[in-house]
Amino acid sequence: MRTATLNTLIRICAVAIVIIISGCAGQQMNMRSAASSEQVQEGGVAMVPITAQLVAGERPLQSLPPELASYQPQVYRIHPGDTILVTVWDHPELTTPAGNQQQAVTNGRMVQPDGSFFYPYAGKFKAAGMTIEELRSTLSSKLAQYLREPKVDVNVVGYGSRVALQGAFEDTTPQEVTTVPLTLAQAIGKARIDAEQADLSGLVLTRDNRNYKLDLDALNRNGDVAPDIYLKPGDHIFLPFNDRKEVYVIGEVLRPQAINFKTTDMSLTQALGRTGGLNPVTSKGSAVYVIRGIDEMKRTPATVYHLDAKSPVAFTLADRFSLQPGDVVWVGPAGVTRWNRFLSQLLPLSGLISNAAAAEYNIGRPD
């Protein structure tokens, strides 16, 4: 009786295992069929092998827009907000009305927002747009009506023109545009890039209501140094953060994760390297895939790039294959890994059989 009961329990559990396995297999087949039909409806998914021909193209060189490359700053012109220090020799009452002990800015006079400038005996006149020499000559002419051969000197001791900075900088304080020309490299150096969070390939310089996208990484690649870009008053510099510039590495790698990158691109080798590489125990070297265009599948088919990484030579191709933001890198499992996972799912059921058999044996034992 005990043996028949034990055999019955074993058969029931065995049938349950078969049903579960069959159900999983059937569900997987149904999912594949549904996926296949969806692919046909959406135009299919393009499978592209990563070959030497695919990665043979040279990376395009970054070039500056001609209007930025050709711009050369002219002689400094007075701007609204500038503070002008006028020195009239032998007339300290005009030169230092606040006293000799005060700073030059205290004795200076500001150009008003409308560009006008006032000075005693010279009156109020429009100074914005003048060069320093033109302003000196104008003041000398006006003061000559009251002073005999006035000797006038003019200096800008405070600057009202600025360049604005925003984004992944450590210091976004607006920077002055002075009589000494300011370059983009100097402004960035003073602002200090946040190296961990900045997207070096996405800097935007806004000038005269036009946006210029500049790839700092490409401009300074392979030992090249980007040419000087001179800034104008009113320029705006924006350096984006790289928090939305990610690739996702999943599957049989040592440390699956999302990876930010701050440069123009990231190679497949770099992405796999940052995750610790392929898992030597569970991964299948011939099953490395890059899935691209998932977000745009409603409009265009996604593309799946396949790398057969069984040979170390394949990583030469991977080093030339550039990833794009949003790419998903998936490393498939080896056959033995799938079998081990099946066993790990089977073992709890086999434990159930053992427990059932033990329970039946204990129930049937006489006290």
From TrEMBL:
> Topology in the membrane?
Multi-pass membrane protein
Keywords per UniProt: Cell outer membrane, Ion transport, Lipoprotein, Membrane, Palmitate, Polysaccharide transport, Porin, Signal, Sugar transport, Transmembrane, Transmembrane beta strand, Transport
Q: Does the keyword Ion transport apply?
A: yes
Q: Where in the cell is it found?
A: Cell outer membrane
The protein depicted here goes by the name: Polysaccharide export outer membrane protein
Keyword Transit peptide among UniProt keywords:
no
Q: What does the record give under GO molecular function?
A: polysaccharide transmembrane transporter activity; porin activity
Stretches that traverse the bilayer: none
Q: Which organism is it from?
A: Luteimonas cucumeris
